[in-house]
Amino acid sequence: MPQTIIYNQRNISVEDRTLKAKKVSKKTIIYLLLGVYALINAYPILWMFLNSFKDNMDFAKNPFGLPVQWMFENYKTAWETARLDTYFLNSVIVSVAAVIITVFAGALASYFLARFTYKWGKAMYGFFVFGMLIPIHATLVPMFILMKNIGLLNTHIGLILPYIAFNLPITIFILVSFMRAFPSDIEESAIMDGCGVFRIFWSIILPMTKPAIATVVILNFIHNWNEFSFALVLINDEALKTLPLGLANFAGQFTTNYGAQMAGLTIAIIPTIIIYMLLEEHLVKGMTAGAVKG
Questions:
Q1: Which residue in 266, 244, 216, 207 sits closest to 74, CA to CA?
Q2: Are 221 and 163 in contact (CB under 8 A)?
Q3: pTM of the model
Q4: What dihedral angle (degrees, nearest 10) is formed by the CA atoms of 105, 97, 214, 275?
Q5: 205: exposed, middle or buried (Cβ count in 10 Å: 0-12, 13-18, 19+)
Q6: Spatial contact of 275 and 217, defined as CB atoms under 8 Å apart
Q7: Is the separation of the CB atoms in 105 and 206 below 8 Å?
């Protein structure tokens, strides 16, 4: 009998070791795959950064290696050629203003669509979601005519309004999906404590929606920051042009200064990286929120 117990204990210990070894090997494979995926995504940024210190000759001969001579003046050339002092500020104004208005309006609309039941609620939600199917570039000519008729060509507002309109559908879609998962007990308790509708939205629902808000802020900012077509059509004043239009100045009729162009792109990508780093914690919380349920 004692020998049987010892034998069973040995079998259990062997099984535990086997399971632990499988878990470790599985984690190792997952981390290796994620590491390779991260390197694949990070390499274009590193490649762009390294090439921002090369001249055209070095770029043509050695596009994937380190610079033979580090051309730090490329950044000065990029700043002057693309007029980054003006265009950068314009992009910040337009992108930040559009993001703030889009997120606030989208969160308020999502609150009523997700937490209230009324006759035309589903139809209204479908109306907003249908906006995701509209091809943005097909509206360039009508948008130009509309902005011309109401006198908003060559203005910041003339860019901000289309950015808000085309970002609202995806914003509402994400926030409504997130808000619908909240239990109704939260609002019932707040109502018993004397909170009104907007107090509940501002003090309870909005803080709970931070992960989803971080997601839509990142998506909206990246779209607004990189948008080129509407800025090209609706803005002709040099003092109001945005950064993507300034970066197009590097492509000349016969030659292109690739080193300065890479330097300009490196400068242009910095705000998006900063925004992501600031909101990364909330974004990760939103992605893992449903993975820890009992």
A1: 266
A2: no
A3: 0.81
A4: 180
A5: buried
A6: yes
A7: no
